[in-house]
Every structure is written in structure tokens, then in C-alpha cells.
Specification:
single chain; 93 residues; mainly alpha; 4 helices
Length: 93
């Protein structure tokens, strides 16, 4: 019969060692396998990070609209290529 206890007897030392093992299981190197088996809870980002992400996405869309409008003003293919090269060199001017 196999016991999960550190010492098979029912002494005070066995109870204390078993309690310490259960308490500090996550910090012990031997508990690494059991920590790996537990799935981590995925945390949702907070409202501030979601708001900042939405604001960043809005700015990105505005930049894209401005870029598309600038490129749409090209008169011919050569002008379009010149504008594309200009945007590649200095994209935020």
C-alpha cells in the first residue's frame, strides 16, 4: 500500500512535513510538473487597455484614409509611383 505522505508513520513530524509539502508545493522544484499541468486563467484586458487599443485602431484608420486620399489624387501611374516612393521614405509627413 503506497502512501502519499512523506513518512508512512502517523507521527507529528510526518504531519508537519505533509502540511509543509502541501503548503509550499508551488515553490518546490518538484511541484513544477504539477504547475505545468494547471491551465493558467486568461485575464481579459482592463477597460483602459481596451479603450487605448480602440483609440490606436481609430488613429490607424485615419492615417490609412489620409494616405489613400493622397494616393487617389495622382494624375497618372508615374505620379502614383512617385507618391508611393515619397510615402515609403517619409510616411508621416
Amino acid at each position: 500500500m503506497k502512501s502519499d505522505r512523506a513518512f508512512p508513520d502517523h507521527s507529528l513530524m510526518s504531519a508537519m512535513l505533509s502540511l509543509a509539502q502541501v503548503t509550499f508545493l508551488d515553490t518546490l522544484p518538484a511541484g513544477a510538473e504539477q504547475r505545468a499541468k494547471r491551465p493558467e486563467r486568461a485575464r481579459r484586458p482592463g477597460w483602459l487597455s481596451r479603450a487605448l487599443a480602440r483609440l490606436d485602431h481609430w488613429f490607424y484608420r485615419q492615417r490609412e484614409k489620409e494616405r489613400e486620399a493622397y494616393l487617389a489624387q495622382a494624375q497618372d501611374i508615374a505620379d502614383l509611383e512617385r507618391r508611393l516612393r515619397q510615402l515609403d521614405r517619409r510616411p508621416y509627413v
